[in-house]
Amino acid sequence: MTIPIALTIAGSDCSGGAGIQADLKSFAALGVYGASVITALTAQNTRGVTGIHQVPADFVTAQIDAVFGDLEVKAVKIGMVADLAVIDAIAAGLRKWSPKHIVLDPVMVATSGDRLLAAEAVDALRTKLIPLASLITPNMPEAAALLDEPVAADEAAIESQGRRLLAMGCPAVLIKGGHGQGAESIDYLVTGNGAIALAAPRIATRNTHGTGCSLSSAVAAGLAKGEDMETAVRNAKAWVSAAIAAADRLGVGHGHGPIHHFHGFY
Questions:
Q1: Fewer CB atoms near the end CB (10 Å): N or C, the chain?
Q2: 100 catalytic per annotation
Q3: How far apart are CA 200 and CA 203, in angstroms?
Q4: Which distant-in-sequence residues (6+ apart) come within 8 Å of 251 by Cβ?
Q5: From the candidates 208, 225, 237, 257, which is the catalytic residue?
């Protein structure tokens, strides 16, 4: 047996809950071998981010070439990329190596509502990375930011925004509803064939650090294993929901703790 391989291109979270670390844990929990290209080092924990050190673009290129030059990568997940030169390097590397599946998590808006990317970086996401992606996974504020519109207020508006995001060049959009209200957290998978609502119970916990990173990585893991897009998204959503439900068992940190990536094992 040859294990499927997925690559995460993202920033490092030294406290282990989000970013590269969450991605690698997600891959491992789902039976996929994980490789990584680190775009930035962060000093952060469950209470917040205290520092960011960008990795030079040429070294991002070197990492991409090292991984693809040796490993048979089946799927790529891209996380937060804030530097224009790094976005260019990632786009060039992906065009060079042409992986079959690319999942882009456009991390643009913090939980607090603060914008994380400058306008020119958002434009680079739109024009350089989204057209290369198989799937993008914005939450509702990020979908609105990509379109420079208000946050969608109802299901019809969410589906409409999803269709306009498809027009940017990607074949599928997963708009995450975790920022919404109500008893259920509903995500919307929008493709050229229409929209599918994926509901899960909304879980009362403060330990949700790394949820978005882990969901996009779980989708990439499913694609790496040969699942079709809808199956990969459904399985990823179910797995992340279980990881959130089990998060309080961990007791990590004093702020917003991580989800339990290995809830299926301990």
A1: N
A2: no
A3: 9
A4: 257
A5: 208
176 is catalytic: yes
Q: Are 236 and 200 in contact (CB under 8 A)?
A: no
Domains of the chain, residue spans: 5-249
- Cβ within 8 Å of residue 266, ≥6 positions away: none
Q: Which of 42, 178, 211, 257 is catalytic?
A: 211
| Cβ(66)–Cβ(7) below 8 Å | no
The class level of CATH for 5-249 reads alpha beta
Confirm whether 8 is a catalytic residue. Answer: no
**Conformation bin of residue 224: beta by default, left when phi > 0, alpha when psi is -120 to 50:** alpha
**Per annotation, catalytic residue among 16, 212, 222, 257:** 212
Q: Which of 39, 77, 213, 237 is catalytic?
A: 213
Q: State CA 44 to chain mean position distance.
A: 18
Span 74-120, pLDDT tens digits? 999 999 898 899 999 999 999 999 999 999 999 876 655 556 677 78
Residues in the chain: 266
31 Rama sector, left if φ>0, alpha if ψ -120 to 50, beta otherwise: left
Query: Other C-beta atoms within 10 Å of 56: how many?
Result: 12
Query: Which of 19, 34, 210, 257 is flagged as catalytic?
Result: 210
- Contact criterion met (CB below 8 Å) for 188 and 197: yes
The pTM is what? 0.96
Digit-coded pLDDT (tens) for 186-242? 999 999 999 999 998 888 899 998 999 999 999 999 999 999 999 999 999 999 999
Catalytic residue list contains 212: yes
Retrieve residue 193's tokens: 């064939």
**How far is residue 71's CA from residue 79's CA, in Å, rounded to a whole number?**
20
85 within 8 A of 71, measured Cβ to Cβ: no
